[in-house]
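Here is one chain, start to finish.
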Amino acid sequence: MTSAIAAAAPPPSVVPEAPDDPIARQVARGVCRRLDQLGHAALTEFVLATGRRADILALGPAGELAIVEIKSCLADFRADGKWADYLGYCERYYFAVPRGFPLEVLPEDQGLILADGYDAEILREAPHRPLSAARRKALTLRFGLVAARRLRLLLDPQAAAAESPA
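Its structure:
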């Protein structure tokens, strides 16, 4: 007899990876601090159903989902043509960049955050694009599972070895 727990889908990968780029790491830190001040819970390196990793997925106080894509330099932005693939997985989409980034190259129809390692400022609010109820539910459930499993890793770091990379 198989229990409902045993028959459930395998857990999503939960072991977060810090960005390799020290500038991106600082931007992520500042953005997450600002999101926290605004009442959002943020997860870094969140793996979507497509297998792509969102730099930051944030769950807002009213249940809205936002993705923040970090661009540490102009070359990083120009080399990335996949950012539009994330639009179907959030209700708001932001680019987050460090001070000195040429802001004029970023799409004006997306949100914009300027950040450093200590704080961030939302320079342009992202337009709201409603998600379907099914996708919102799936993402919110996955957000909760990943967050809970990451907290468990604080208690049991060896459990990370059992996690499969996604």
